[in-house]
Amino acid sequence: MTVVPGGAADVIVVGAGPAGSSAAWWCAQAGLDAVVLEKAAFPREKVCGDGLTPRGVKALDDMGIDTSPASGWVRHKGLRVQGGGEVVEVDWPTLSTWPAYSVVRRRSELDALLADHAAAAGARLHTGVTVTEPLLDDAGRVVGVRAESGPDKEPIVWRAPLVVSAEGLSGRLAKSLGLVRREDRPLGVAVRRYVRTPRAHDDYLDLSFDLTEHGPSRDSMPGYGWVFGMGDGTANVGFGLLDTRRSTGADHRAVLRDWLATFPAEDHLGEEFAVTPLRGAGLPMALHRQPAYTRGLLLTGDAAGTVNPFNGEGISSAMETGRMAAETVADALAVPAGPAREAVLRRYPARLGAAYGRHHRLGMGFLALLSRPTVVRLATAHGLKRPVLVNAALRLMGNLTDGWTGDATDRVVAALTRLAPAV
After folding, report:
1. CA 362 remoteness from chain centre
2. Predicted structure pTM score
3. Which of 8, 108, 226, 383 could pair with 43 in a Cys bridge, judged by C-beta atoms 3.0 to 4.6 Å apart?
4. Are 98 and 398 in contact (CB under 8 A)?
């Protein structure tokens, strides 16, 4: 079969999720010719809680995306946390660095919106293109990708001096270069469905560590459940197991079903009110695939394992790392190919480590505690009664502080993070 050339660009971005579209948008802003290759067609489903923390809102704002309710976004001012038999509502912190609200948007809408935003900035978006392997030169350096296009799987080739992998957990390109997932790093699992419920409109996002009517137990899974009102008569309900290595062996679907059964019947959260099937996906954490740059390939988002171990949220870090990768690509292409360019590119993994490494190490410690039901019961039952502790925990878990320039709580969190070794 004849190989049909796809073309050439300054940079190829593989995947048009939040990481890929962010990378493409920022590359376009830098004046680069960015080609985005996405295997699916939009709109497409993606298993997710659909919630973007204030970090995610900031990343959207930085790309000039309007997150107002008038533009179809649903805002929430904080979390309603249940644990140890206690329930507390806590607002997002008021900080100079981050917005004081979160938003939700179905991923089927969000991903299409971000891809269109990148295309409007000048990125060339091609859907229905499945990248199969990297294109290597004689020295083994990535100089493009091989792909299949359309229902007939027509082979094509795209060439570029740099490639950004935003492929998600699969990380096909990274694997082909020998970068496999580290088994000593946590991998989470999330399952979710949409239900038609009266709880579709709420100022708070519901999180629960009490997954049974008796709270955490030896038989309950180390994770949390969520109910996120979508503002359209439905809610995203799900369960996240944040570390499969600490699984009790219980079925994820059964855990979700049993937890939802603890809600009042009038909330309509059970399976009989579902409007979509139950779906699941992996949550790669703790920079599990390293290095994030090698031989012309940069890893972003889930491909690099940037999901927050504290809460399983990965959209914000996906968009942030997409921007970091784009800035690195722009800086690298501004210097001649060779040692000078490689020196710029090799700083990218260190940048990811500086941004997330210590925080993720603390998150791994949190996961160890979460696997101990007695500790969870005591911590939530007593901690949720103390607003100062709840506020500090929210900042730490969401990676939401002003750092050393912030208030006393921020400085404590900054000191704690500095003491943690990097992952």
Report:
1. 18
2. 0.95
3. 108
4. no
